[in-house]
Amino acid sequence: MQWLSVCSLLVLLSVLSRSQAQNQICTIFTEAKEDGFKSLILVGLAQNLPDSTLGDLVPLIAEALAMGVKCCSDTPPEDCERDVADLFQSAVCSSETLVEKNDLKMCCEKTAAERTHCFVDHKAKIPRDLSLKAELPAADQCEDFKKDHKAFVGRFIFKFSKSNPMLPPHVVLAIAKGYGKVLTTCCGEAEAQTCFDTKKATFQHAVAKRVAELKSLCIVHKKYGDRVVKAKKLVQYSQKMPQASFQEMGGMVDKIVATVAPCCSGDMVTCMKERKTLVDEVCADESVLSRAAGLSACCKEDAVHRGSCVEAMKPDPKPDGLSEHYDVHADIAAVCQTFTKTPDLAMGKLVYEISVRHPESSQQVILRFAKEAEQALLQCCDMEDHAECVKTALAGSDVDKKITDETDYYKKMCAAEAAVSDDSFEKSMMVYYTRIMPQASFDQLHMVSETVHDVLHACCKDEPGHFVLPCAEEKLTDAIDATCDDYDPSSINPHIAHCCNQSYSMRRHCILAIQPDTEFTPPELDASSFHMGPELCTKDSKDLLLSGKKLLYGVVRHKTTITEDHLKTISTKYHTMKEKCCAAEDQAACFTEEAPKLVSESAELVKPTFTPR
């Protein structure tokens, strides 16, 4: 590849300033330092050229590194200031090998903006895989890790980037850093494999959580637009930085929202330019930094990791003198005056004032109250007696009570989850969701019940009491966003479709209000649907859980109003059959005889007590 083409690879860094007059490549080379520079190039190459091998990319990275040095010399080449997106695409398209290997011929036949859109669309269609499978045993990984730490992390970045082309580079590098920490900890222990298995599960959960958050934000932006995204981010960062003023927070949130569209589209050039500008401007504001301890600490991180640090930071202490509660009625005249002229400004101020006082709240609770307050202001602000009108309109709506009630709800869920085994709780979620959407496939409901269990298990353990609400409701809302987006809600039932089209903050409440679907006509219940055989005698707890959930799914679909006593009876009979047949000399013969009996007895319990019209 020619020297000019090497320069073009740096489009993949995408963390440059907006100024075309600036030596862009030197800027990132200086800020990211050599290792960060190479890592960013590797992420971008692997994400855009997934059919290339690591061996294909290594020489390109080395040449790009050399180019970075030249761009920071006393006489940098003119190409250091050219538009990096156009340079990258030109470079790729000049290589027949890269074009053929990565199926980019159609894109390379286009020019300018059309070519850029084609590259972005091409990347968006690359299959994604969040799992970290097919790794070597811990001992072998530790040997490779100790032998050459940088090369090991590089291979991880390459594989993970190829499998996750839409993740922003800073997220990929934060994940790689986390995986490196797992190995650093475990490779120094005698029982490296045990340590690795435990910490890997925790690490994968953290990865899934971060990706779910990003996916949900993109879904929300696509469905509800900038206004809802802005409201979410205003709550989130006002809670994290209560020392910042409303004006400061508003400016920051506007910049955050500007990054969402390009980042969600896969346009990482614009995405990372906007993120870089945002973080630079925020970290340059000494006034805010002097009051926001968490932000100040994150701004000391290197350029590659500052953004991820800001997203993960915990809430700072509230400012001295801040009242415990925000009373919207106390200055209703001023509120209405602002609302009449600039409604979004007035609503933003209200959301900010509540958020800085309630870091223990979820975004959704605050936004639900804000929606009610907005309706009251729309109804009352033009009236002469607007103060009394607003009081009457919001008489049954108290944000502090909403937060308390929702927190109590999740504490009860935590108590329920703690009172039974993990498998029992997950099965209870399977029953609950099968009752309200029996039209959904087993795989869909298996995923939903597993997600709800995982969310509550994590939040009840990691954020007990005070912060269980924001942890649980945020993650459950993310799961609802993904479910409504991944599947056609109308193909499930009208109730789910209705809830998926509700306002953002009301989706979960809407789903919780759905009653068991009594109009569903299930397929015939027969033994062939459940595949109960000697495989139930395995000690693999996951297989046993899956089998139990399949039985519950089949039974509940046939009678969504089935009582808990009848479910308990079926469960008892299932375990009795399993114990009997697993102890039998001929397990297969036993299951062949006993499984149809269980299904037949279950069918009797779910027979309708009336004849459908």
Automatic annotation (TrEMBL):
SUPFAM superfamilies: Serum albumin-like (SSF48552)
Keywords assigned: Disulfide bond, Repeat, Secreted, Signal
GO cellular component: blood microparticle; cytoplasm
Signal sequence region: 1-21
The keyword Transcription regulation is annotated on this UniProt entry: no
All copies of domain Albumin, residue ranges: 13-205, 206-398, 402-600
Entry's localization field: Secreted
Pfam families the UniProt entry points to: Serum_albumin (PF00273)
The protein, known as: Serum albumin 2
Organism: Salmo trutta (Brown trout)
